[in-house]
Amino acid sequence: MKSLLSTTCALLFSAALPAQADCNLVRLAEPGWTDLALTSAITQVLIEGMGHKTESKILGIPVIYESMKRKDLDVFMGYWDPAMETYFNAYRDSGEIETIHTNLEGAKFTWAVPSYVYDAGVHSFADLAKHADEFDEKVYGIEPGSNDIMLDIVAKNEFGLGDWKVVESSEQGMLSQVAREIKRKKWIAFLGWAPHPMNTAFDLKYLEGGDAYYGPNFGGATVHTQVRKGYQKECPQIGKLLDQLTFTVSMESEGMGYILDDKMSAMDAARKVIANHPDMLDTWLEGISTTDGSSALAAVNKDLGLAPKP
């Protein structure tokens, strides 16, 4: 009886304790955008070098946020503010998703046209409808679930675009369409952003006048790291890394070029970017330990075959 009572008490006490987080596996997601594929992969390379396992899924932005709310995902490296504000607003006040760090400044995100279209007089959103025939009343976006702002503009007949169609495909599909149209000197309006190799691959111009939807300065944006509620406290070493992981526009554009132009996998591109910028590791991994308590900086350098500093 005493043994049974002790066992029962132990079970009740155990049930009363909060569930322990599984910090061994870090679950990330990205929406199929090359910049976020790269930054998520850099994050994975570092976390795996620390001795953890990672997995990353490609999901629509609304699904990412719902999955984080349900605690099915841990980390999202790509909250573009203000462009993604409409997606995040439903979770902002509840605290179910925490925005913990600005990992990129100097980004932009709005509509663009080839320079020859700009030179012909299309300088702003308001100019598009005047040339509806040249554009075939179409504006090109990326993956479904990432074009809600474009769809909203058309649905509300903003800028006289109520009869236009938003063509949704993928980032690669959109860029292939842009390349075809530019080669033929045809007119096209599309979703453009930086960092991205499109800014050097194409002679393009960003359109003015979209401030109410994309924000000022051509959708000038900062990109933030987000985690599910409480994750930093549950997994402090990973949380510290996420607080220190900051990128640059040029670094991301470089890595995206490896993926898009050189056809590297995101993980291989991430390793090459890190190898090209090894000094970044000092900041990213300062004061961080591996799963066995040793220096994360030394472990990641060894994992990537980089010579440790003297």
TrEMBL record:
GO molecular function, one term: transmembrane transporter activity
Name used for this protein in its record: Glycine betaine/proline transport system substrate-binding protein
Residue ranges occupied by any ABC-type glycine betaine transport system substrate-binding domain in the UniProt entry: 26-274
Leader peptide range in chain numbering: 1-21
InterPro entries from the UniProt entry: ABC_choline_sub-bd (IPR017783), ABC_Gly_betaine_transp_sub-bd (IPR007210)
Transmembrane segments: none
The entry's keywords: Signal
Organism listed in the record: Cohaesibacter marisflavi
Cross-referenced CDD domains: PBP2_ChoX
GO biological process: choline transport
GO cellular component, one term: periplasmic space
